[in-house]
Amino acid sequence: MGLDEVVKAMGQDPFYPPTVFNYFPADYKVPGTSLIAPPMGIHNTNTVLARSNFVNQLLYEGGIERDDEIAGTIGTAIDITAYRALAADPKQLVATLDDRLFGGGMPAAMKNEIYLAVQTIDASALRERARTAIYLAATALQYQVSR
Questions:
Q1: Could you tell me if residue 63 is left (phi over 0), alpha (psi between -120 and 50 degrees) or otherwise beta?
Q2: Per-residue pLDDT tens digits of the chain, which is 147 residues long
Q3: Please, how many CA atoms are within 13 Å of residue 51, restricted to the half-sphere of its CB?
Q4: What is the 8-class DSSP label of residue 27?
Q5: What pLDDT is stored for residue 147 in this prediction?
Q6: How far apart are CA 55 and CA 135, in angstroms?
């Protein structure tokens, strides 16, 4: 499956936004509230699952292979080397993810939960610690929805 198919499943068909407002309905209200939140207009059960699968594929399945049907594609992968180097110190790993993925805005409860999850993994399993922390951060609602 090529990257174009993966992002279509997440509600953002590359190069073909449904309206001039891009992928987000400009007047979308969060159900049960008066809060206008256009990005939430494409955030539903299907897209949450598709995004989680995308992160899983990047971290645990080697990425997304190049698409032979589209000229010039090279595929998509993630290099977690820098995070593996930090995985011996879960607090530093979580702090770095907070800085790089959340711009310092990761909720304290989330930091604690990711820290606790990483702590349960054997200290010598640096790759697994890094992948787990990245997966938990990147699949969190707070990361997927821009503020």
A1: left
A2: 677 777 777 777 767 777 776 777 888 888 899 988 887 787 778 888 888 999 999 999 988 888 777 788 788 889 999 999 999 999 999 999 999 999 999 999 999 999 999 999 999 999 999 999 999 999 998 887 655
A3: 20
A4: T
A5: 52
A6: 6
Residue carrying the six token digits 């206008």: 36
Is the C-alpha dihedral spanning 28, 32, 33, 37 positive or negative? negative
* Distance (Å, whole) CA 142 – CA 43: 12
Let me know: does 25 contact 39? Beta carbons within 8 Å. Answer: no
CA 9 vs. chain centroid, Å, equals 14
Cβ burial 35-62 (10 Å sphere, 16+ → b, else e):
eebbebbbbeeeeeebbebbbebbbeee
| Total number of residues shown for the chain | 147
Rounded-to-integer distance, Cα 7 and Cα 77, Å: 14
CB 66 within 8 A of CB 73: yes
